[in-house]
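To: structure subgroup
Subject: Chain for Friday's discussion

All,

I'm putting the inputs and outputs inline so they're searchable in the archive.
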Amino acid sequence: MPCRRSSAAHRPHRLLGRLEVPADWDVLAADARSFGGPPGVGILAVRDGVRWALPGPRSEFESGRATAEPVIPLVVAAAAAWESVAASRSEDATDSFRLIDVIRQAAAGIENVDVLGDAVDRLPHVVTLSALYLSGEAVVGELDRRGFAVSSGSMCTASTLEPSHVLAAMGAVTHGNIRVTLPLLSTNSHRSVDVDQFVSEVPIVIGKLRDELEL
């Protein structure tokens, strides 16, 4: 995280993710991969005055039994990646919001497909769709064969076969759903073209899988 400065002309960027960090935050957490940084690097910021106890046992690194040298290049690379995209994150978020709207509108026109979440009060780069009668894994697999990398379920249960308790709490269908996450424009300059291709393929994929169920 950049340090605070008093000069307005040198005020640090307040974008850590796709949206501006709220002024009243207590704890911030981020994965460096979300802004093009190296894997294995995370950011945890705790505001001064917040009571905080690190959960679990202390690591060797924290107790001083491990050297910091292997970590430093990764941290520097993460900071450089953040700086390289920070200035354009607001524009990126605006464009992401527009592209997700394209997906939402296209999906809403497919029979028995629900578009989850609020149309306005939402993250700019993520959308979840639920296709009635279908398995989410089947939709993900068919889209993957066509060159589209999407996921099923919510992010907190994507690695298991259990229905998402998050989607259930929303009153949404817990099966037959796919989650689409847009990459940063800086890491995929042709994502607008990808979205156009995606919205043309989704009705075909869903129709194909439903036809197979009727055989």
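Points worth raising on Friday:
The two ends are 56 Å apart (CA to CA).
The CA atoms of residues 26 and 51 lie 9 Å apart.

D.
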